[in-house]
Write a structure and sequence with these properties.
- The protein is an alpha+beta fold.
- Helices cover 29% and strands 14% of the residues.
- It has 16 helices and 10 strands.
- Strands 1, 2, 3, 4, 5, 6, 7, 8, 9 and 10 form a 10-stranded antiparallel sheet that branches.
- A hairpin with a 2-residue loop joins β3 and β4.
- The longest helix is centred in the last third of the chain and has 17 residues.
- Bound molecules: protoporphyrin IX containing FE.
- Protoporphyrin IX containing FE (HEM) binds next to β2, β3, β4 and α11.
- Its EC number is 1.11.1.6.
């Protein structure tokens, strides 16, 4: 009968509530009072409704508030739960508790997504795919918020909102780039550093055959720190153990908008659990400097990849998705993945896009879900210790940390874990000028896309690529934009430009040397010294 007893009984029943069948449940108002039937609106004879009818008011007003904002990007997605297991511990690289011993496990939640479309959009859009994993480690949650492509469209975070606007609906016509690709191509033709990702997008990997048959890549350079404080740069790879499969543009038109959702859900439902390996490429700070000196690849530039021959992958573990969400909204839509969620031993690099993302995700979560989103079951950490801090109150504070002090108290202090490695040791390496800009285009920006065209794509893949690009160009009426874009493709390989010219009937510019791009940091920088020139 006491409040204590009530809380003990009611609030330890999340799992019971999640799993309860309808047969065990009585229909009630939100305050728990049984109602004989939902279709009993109280009405005065043949007259108006009564405000006293709490059941109807409760029903309608909750319904009115059912929608939360969809994710501003990656709104269409699918998720599932599973388990990560360490197969090859790496204490020499990383002090994270999870990676210390073979067989260490943790519960995970994964969310896959497309990027540009709204939450009801087509799963088989030609678009990168998001691949997020929440690892619930003993030391708190570690989120990998990755894509299925190892590179990205930009290296200057200020471009991200503008870039995304060009991939979303037009403010005037309200059309997407499926009907009018003018803004889509204008962005790329003004920002040539996007070319590598554009090549991947229009290649075969641009439409994965559902989510089970694709890899995930951190894309960003991160850092791994071991218990001695030694650190290396790293890139994470999640490799599909199902292999890579894709749909051609033509094939993709034959499937329902929820193809990937259905494919993932049904595979898990019938016990055909998809699996990925977690692997890592590493690089010492000295090697990073050499990579810049010799190949002009900046490890903080996610439009570039690390050459796999020079930096082989090393396996750490495997994960399996073996449990569908019982309730999509609670377990997938409300999931909040954040690249700033890192555990000791895993650190951000100075990559400016990564640094910006560290701010942007929790910022959007407070808006999209609410200030206490970390308390929701799918987001809550599951640590080896009771965790505490001085965050209190706010909307829907469910776990409000009891009677413990809400300030740094010396009378009743919480426990503090010392930092395993001094921050000076892992972050004492920032060098360079006070302000630098990221928009210069360099010849090296075209090396990897060229290798993709010349060495990775075979002839049928090249033909599909030309079809995909020229097909997309057909919905851009602005010829000037397409001339620019063809010039950018010419920097990759004249063969691509020539084939596109033939397919579109548009003669592109000779190359980008004399072209001006949006913004003040223009031209093709051929010399390291002009790296920071305006
Ligand atoms: C989702 C911002 C670049 C991968 C999001 C969301 C925002 C955002 C605001 C919505 C999050 C939510 O509502 O929960 C940005 C910004 C970027 C950037 C500002 C650059 C400056 C990237 C890059 C990657 C990436 C480079 C991959 C390497 C993802 C993924 C999701 C996402 C996978 C979906 C997460 C989920 O499943 O809930 N991004 N993003 N983003 N982003 Fe980014």
């Amino acid at each position: 009968s006491s409040f204590k007893a009530h809380v003990a009984e009611r609030f330890c029943t999340y799992e019971a509530d999640r799993k309860a069948t309808s047969k065990e449940c009585v229909y009630t108002t939100s305050n728990g009072v049984p109602v004989p039937h939902p279709y009993e609106a109280q009405r005065l004879g043949n007259g108006p409704l009564l405000l006293q009818d709490f059941h109807l008011v409760d029903l309608l007003s909750h319904f009115d508030r059912e929608r939360i904002p969809e994710r501003v990007v990656h709104a269409k997605g699918s998720g599932a739960h599973g388990e990560f297991v360490v197969t090859d511990p790496c204490p020499d690289l990383c002090l994270a508790d999870l990676f210390q011993e073979k067989g260490n496990k943790c519960s995970i939640t994964v969310r896959f997504s497309t990027v540009g479309g709204e939450s009801g959009s087509h799963d088989l859009a030609r678009d990168p795919r998001g691949f997020s994993v929440k690892f619930r480690t003993n030391e708190g949650n570690w989120d990998m918020v990755a894509n299925n492509t190892p590179v990205f469209f930009l290296r200057d975070p200020a471009k991200f909102p503008f870039f995304i606007h060009t991939q979303k609906r037009d403010p005037a016509t309200h059309l997407t780039h499926a009907d009018d690709s003018t803004h889509f191509w204008e962005y790329f033709s003004q920002n040539p550093e996007s070319i590598h990702q554009v090549m991947v997008l229009f290649g075969d990997r641009g439409i994965p055959k559902g989510y089970r048959f694709m890899n995930g890549y951190s894309g960003h350079t991160m850092k791994l720190v071991n218990k001695d404080g030694d650190w290396v740069y790293c890139q994470f790879h999640m490799k599909s153990m199902q292999g890579i499969q894709f749909f051609t543009q033509e094939e993709s038109a034959n499937y329902s908008p929820d193809y990937s959702q259905k494919d993932l859900y049904e595979a898990i439902q019938k016990g055909d659990y998809p699996k990925w390996t977690l692997e890592v490429q590493t690089m010492t700070p000295k090697q990073a400097e050499e990579l810049w000196e010799t190949q002009k690849i900046n490890v903080f530039d996610l439009t570039h990849i690390w050459p796999q021959g020079q930096f082989p992958r090393r396996k750490i573990g495997e994960f399996t998705l073996n449990e569908n969400a019982i309730n999509y909204f609670a377990e997938v839509e409300q999931a909040a993945f954040n690249p700033a969620h890192m555990v000791p031993g895993i650190e951000p690099s100075a990559d400016p896009v990564l640094q910006s993302r560290l701010f942007s995700y929790p910022d959007t979560h407070r808006h999209r879900i609410g200030v206490n989103y970390q308390q929701l079951p799918v987001n809550a950490p599951r640590t080896a210790y009771m965790h505490a801090n001085f965050q209190r109150d706010g909307s829907m504070a469910f776990f409000n940390q009891g009677a413990r002090p809400n300030y740094l108290s010396s009378i009743d202090p919480v426990l503090f874990e010392p930092r395993a490695v001094d921050l000076d040791k892992t972050h004492g390496h920032f060098t360079g000028e006070a302000v630098t800009f990221l928009s210069q285009i360099r010849p090296e920006d075209f090396n990897a896309p060229r290798a993709l065209w010349q060495k990775v794509f075979d002839e049928p893949a090249r033909e599909r690529f030309i079809n995909n690009v020229s097909g997309k160009m057909a919905s851009c009426p602005d010829k000037e934009i397409l001339k620019r874009q063809i010039a950018i493709f010419r920097e990759v390989d004249d063969d691509i430009a020539k084939r596109l010219e033939k397919a579109t009937g548009i003669q592109g510019y000779d190359g980008i040397k004399n072209m001006q791009f949006n913004g003040t940091h223009n031209g093709m920088a051929t010399d390291d010294k002009v790296k920071h020139a305006n």
